[in-house]
Specification:
5-stranded antiparallel sheet, alpha/beta, single chain, 5-stranded parallel sheet, 15 strands, about 35% helix
Amino acid sequence: MYLIALCDDEAAEMEKIKSLLEQYQEWHGDCPFQIDCFVNVNELLIRMEESGYMPDILFMDIYMPEKMGIQAAQEIREMGNGCRIIFLTSSKEYALEAYQVDAVQYLLKPISDKELFPVLDKTLRAMEREQQKHLLLRIDGTIRRVALHDILYCEAQKKSQSICLTENRQLQLRMTMGRLQEMLAGHDEFVRVGVAYIINLEHVESLNTQMLQMDNGDEIYLPRGSYQNLRELYFDYYCGDDD
């Protein structure tokens, strides 16, 4: 059973999304949903704070009268709530800000099954794979299992690699950058930046023409001419290939 929350001050739009979710559920008999609806974002935040309410997926409009969806998402993250947020909006104006609060997708209204269903497929698959995504690494003669989500970036240091992990952890690995890149092949969140870095797009908080900032505060300066390609990879990873 997946718990899904909808938060949109436009009741008609929320009913449309709910109807599409119910249709998706009918077509996927092994994927039952419980759907909760909120027309007031403050009501949602209070329930999360007071009762620990944590849906698996939250569909939330960015433009709401009480407060912007981006602000609400920031408060949700500050509570430690790790629900997967999918923003609904009529404008691309806040696309980059959306991913700074760890949103998994950004859908433009009006939303149809052609836009929604692939996003649900991708999100549910990611949830199923989350516990299975690990690297097995030999470190100081010991085999260690490292969750891919915990890797922020890898930095080449002469003949070894420094792997920066969440919670200020680091690993030193005697392996070439090329071999490490082969091990991460097939995981779209990992991209090569110059000759010295492999970064995890899930942990990129912001980027500009000179550097990117990871969500732990570390700054990685970009090689000349690499920004445009990295920017496209970043948006493609979160938004897909559509303009």
